[in-house]
Amino acid sequence: MNSFFERRYVIAGIFIALILVLLARLFYIQVVDDRYFLYAQNNVMRRIIQYPARGPILDRTGKIMVQNEPIYDIMVIPKQVKPFDTVEFCKLLDIDKEGFDKRFAKAKVYSPVRASVFEKQLSVQAYASFQERLSEFPGFYPQLRSVRTYPDSAASQFLGYIGEVTDAIIKRSGGYYTPGDYVGITGVEKSYESTLRGQRGVRNLIYDSHNTPKGSYANGAYDTAAVAGERLISSLDMRIQKLGEKLMTNKVGSIVAIEPSTGEILCFVSSPTYDPNLLVGRQRGNNAAKLYKDPYKPFFTRPVQAYYPPGSSFKPLSALIGLQEGLIKPSDTYNCIGYYMAGNHRVKCTHVHGTVNLAGAIAGSCNGYFNMVFAKVLNAQGGKNTDDSYTSWKANVNKFGFGERLGVDIPSEGKGLVPTAKYYDKIYHKGGWRSTTVASLAIGQGELLATPLQLANIEATIANHGFYYKPHLIKAIGDKQVIKHEYTVKNYVGIDAQYFEPVINGMQSVVDYGTGQGSKIPGIVMCGKTGTAQNPHGKNHSLFVAFAPRDNPKIAIAVVVENSGDGGTWAAPIASFIVEKYLRDTITKRPSGIYPEYYIEKNLLPEIIVKPADKAKLKADSLKKATADSLKKRKADSIKQASFKSAQNKPAKKSLGNVLTAMLPKRKDDE
Amino acid sequence: MNNHQRSFFFNVDWVTVLIYLALCVIGWFNIHAAVFDENHPNILDFDTQYGKQFIYILSALVIGTVILLLESRFLSALAPAFYVVTVVLLAVVLVAGRNVGGNQAWIDMGGGFRLQPSEFAKFATCLLLARYLSATNVKVTDPKSFLIAGGIIFLPMLLIKMQPDDGSTLVFCSLILVLYREGLSVYFLIIIGLLATLFISALLVNVWFIIIALIAIVALLLFMFGRRNRKFVASLIVGLVLSIGFIFCVKPLYYHGLKPHQRVRIDEVLGLSKDLRGVGYNQNQSKIAIGSGRIWGKGYLQGTQTKYAFVPEQSTDFIFCTVGEEWGFAGSVVVLGLYLFLLLRIIMIAERQRAPFSRIYGYGVASIIFCHVIINIAMAIGYMPVIGIPLPFISYGGSSLWSFTILLFILLKLDSNRMGMNYA
């Protein structure tokens, strides 16, 4: 009856075998293979980076120089978008239909269910009109972000700007930054990046399969809060910064002012400048491109990057070295006959000074006197071993921070140039050069090149009678007002305090009755020195260095106005206004009759010759731009830089090289 | 038989009932986890699937009890009637049924309740098959009997295929195990296995490799056993020729005979295509859910894959994801262990019957439950294409739970009466 009964074992065997196969597979995916656990976590968990607010920057009086302003990014989740009035939408966002399609296609490619940025950086005003209609555009939503804003539109090269990280920065940061992050690119924003950026936080959120947030992961146990960036208190005084920028309108050059007793930089003008607000928001790309093309290079940070021959402003330093070496005495006199015989050629003086002592030589800027001093220094060993003497002179100059980096706290600082003895050995072969060969160094010409910051620092050192604090732009960091230790150390330059008085006497005379007398400020004793840096490529650069008041100096300053003429004509008056504004907060009537408005309105921009080839290229560029990706096509927003236009309107006279970079003087003695 | 009542309950196989209850409770809790709704956290909230499942379990128990109280002879006698009724219902559903998820499988009963005739067709078919095969003059080895038995299975299968419900159709194929137990040649099983292997190989491997391999195997077999046995040689060579013919039919059959949605699902399992965002999404998410459970699982109500709706059909066809994710490999072992225990127990019960009717019916029950378990779990872990088929006693749904309860409790009823049947 019950035949085939042994077949139950076959059937039971099939049951057992197949269930074991399933269990083996389950063992593999549940126990052996760990990937599925990670997949599941990736499915639901999103690490949301919490961006901290970037630290604001204040001026020395607590006035805000840069802070954050809310803006809105318009985000889109393509899958949630339903048909809507595209025309109206484009109008609200100020984009064209083509740009809309491109953006939307891009977002779709990125992900149909995840949010991507549709339009960046809508201002609060622009967003307000968009917000009213927001409900008509399902799938679009705003995301609050912040951008930098500059209430005074000043000190742009000092502050620098921030921008999206490049691949190189991401690589260098070791993965700290991710694409789309903003970092400081120049200026203080760059040098204090790690302080300003704060600390990012992370939120671990749970999302369901429809990408709807479902609260935080593990009740936020693994979340970290973002810590806002620290506040920076800069050393700048906005009053004189703004005045300085005004005075330098339509001029190329810079102003650097330092508080001698601290090394704090009070004023840091680089002209021409630009409105830092131009590099924020939706027009940023266009504006930046225009600024890059500006022939006067507004991004060039002249106070620390431009090199100028110090000219006569170098003379006090020259005198100090002679005094320290014991080669001259303040009372020693020199008879200026209108030229100095350096070997067998004449070095011209401005005029016949007659018999001058140290103070008189400084006041009258007598070239002969300083050639004499320099010859004494280089011939200290009786005309032999000039290179040794030169090397020790160079070392003395270097101690003032001239020819070396001062280590100021913004990027791209230049060293200036004090050539080595070897340099001259190369040109004239070893032992083939003497004091007369390099005589122009005595009067700050020849190969000598300094940045405006170095010039100002020399004045601060003289004001301090022999030492300086490292010049710096950030006074204190954070709420605790931490001051970096390196800024509290005195740097001695190796000149005894006693030698300064005679030199300072001379510098006072410069302003009282010498080459800078037009800039005398009633009631304030200012000690200064004019300089006229010879420029082989065009008109001379006008220089003025000074500190004031003579007793207990509060401000040391260097002013350079490129291609404008004598130091006393342009640089000195500008310096005097800054000094007075800083010390008195007002500018009084001057006996000489000078007033700031005249200087503000004066256009001293050098002409720029655009070569025909360049012109064609420029045109091509602008054409290319006009037809460029409509993502960037917007109303052309001209940069308010009258300077640029006025310079272009003038007819070209003679061919100039690049005035800004070709500053290296030809080896040429003054005759 | 004085204390008939006492011995009756004494005779019920309580081990099976306990396994049955365990699986129902496991199902209930996992449905709670799978469709957990924070606004209705209570497992007894009747607005939710888990609340409803509780009612289904209670009513299933009532149905089970009623079946135990029925007269055994009644079941055997009414088998043809049950069969006719379900076949009629299967035909009606094709005309007037309600279409849910692409399958015309439901009949509205009013009051929100729907019935799925294909669920009841399973036990009706088993009953009729048992009755037919248990007749004294019927032998499966006899071609005529085989054809009639096959017809009993094939008729409801065809109607269900027309809904079209591929899962349930496949389940009816499992009844071949019953025929095998009753004497069907083992070659049927071997040929089915061979065809399945050839089918899959032909899709994955170059046809010529398979042919070369087949010829080599046949040559080896001939060399080893075929020297004197002419019949063996002849059948081998015929088999070889048919196999090669079949191989060449596979691709046209696959690419033209199957519906696109079926083909892409098979492609996905065989690795012929990888579309984790489209066709493969559900199965991939299901695998992730189960795999992410690791050894001990994420804990009750802690499964993120199910909680955040990454897994589809979480309470019905993919309920095993919740088991795998929240209870880990340990949970998988317990559930599959219970099923295996249940299946072996059913075989044991079937084999202790004196009446062939009960034995045959028992194997039918085992085959159907086995088929459901294997297909459902293999699908959840990517070993089989996606086929909508519930996990017995665990998946959410009244029709499915009731039909499995009826299926199993009829066997328990027959078993409790095995002595009585003998005397009858």
TrEMBL record, chain A:
Signal peptide: none annotated. The chain crosses the membrane at residues 9-28. The keyword Protease applies. It is found in: Cell membrane; Membrane. Residues 253-578 form the Penicillin-binding protein transpeptidase domain. Coiled coil: none annotated. Residues 51-212 form the Penicillin-binding protein dimerisation domain. It is an enzyme of class 3 (hydrolase). It is a single-pass membrane protein. GO terms for molecular function: serine-type D-Ala-D-Ala carboxypeptidase activity. InterPro entries: Beta-lactam/transpept, Beta-lactam/transpept-like, PBP_dimer, PBP_dimer_sf, PCN-bd_Tpept, Penicillin-binding_protein_2. It comes from the Bacteria. Keywords: Carboxypeptidase, Cell inner membrane, Cell membrane, Cell shape, Cell wall biogenesis/degradation, Hydrolase, Membrane, Peptidoglycan synthesis, Protease, Transmembrane, Transmembrane helix. Residues 627-671 are annotated as: Disordered. PANTHER family: PEPTIDOGLYCAN D,D-TRANSPEPTIDASE, PEPTIDOGLYCAN D,D-TRANSPEPTIDASE MRDA. This is Penicillin-binding protein 2. It comes from Mucilaginibacter aquariorum. The gene is mrdA.
From TrEMBL, chain B:
The chain crosses the membrane at residues 12-33, 53-70, 77-96, 145-162, 183-201, 207-225, 232-254, 327-348, 360-381, 393-412. This is Rod shape-determining protein RodA. NCBIfam families: RodA_shape. It is a multi-pass membrane protein. Keywords: Cell shape, Membrane, Transmembrane, Transmembrane helix. The keyword RNA-binding does not apply. InterPro entries: FtsW/RodA. It is found in: Membrane.
